[in-house]
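sorry for the late reply, my laptop died twice this morning and i had to redo everyting from scratch. anyway the thing you sent over, i finally got around to it. pasting the sequence first so we're on the same page, its 187 residues, then the predicted structure underneath. double check i copied it right bc i was rushing
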Amino acid sequence: MIRIIFKYQKSFGRKVLGLYYKIYLRLLGCKVGKNFKCLGLIHFREVPNGNFVIGDNVTIGRHCTFEITPNGKLILEDNSVIGDNVMMSSLEKIRVGRWTGIAENVSIRDAFHLLDKGSLYQMQGSVSQAIDIGEDVVLGAGTAILKGAVIPNGVIVGSNSVVTGGLEMEAFGIYAGQPARLIKLRS
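ok and here's the structure:
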């Protein structure tokens, strides 16, 4: 009996937290779909200003951090699942397609510091390029997705892999490594 009560209490808490963030984000001009769930608190490094779009049936895990600059945009399409401790930083645009699963400790960043030797790197600004993650994609734990990455539909990226912007990926491929390379195609 206690297990049943605990199960419903956890489910209720996720929905209440999801409702809180849904109201908060909508007040800031963001779009949030139906049945949004949060498993824990979300950290925003910058307050969203209508540049965060969340589709229907999206779940966000514990301790996730989102940094969406005023010119950036973050789109989480329908039925996406974001694991615990995920970091997404958007100076330009990050799109996560429908039915995509992102495991814990994944970093997705569409920008990188300039590294000229003539001045301090923190004073140089950044260069950015949009990231596009297709539908039915799986990103394994600890994966890093860097600026300019285009991940086609059906791709699986193994744990602790690094996907860079210059990598040409095949749809329904299984990739792993640093940098990621094609292991085989899904059957």
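The radius of gyration is 17 Å.
thats about all i looked at so far, will dig more tmrw
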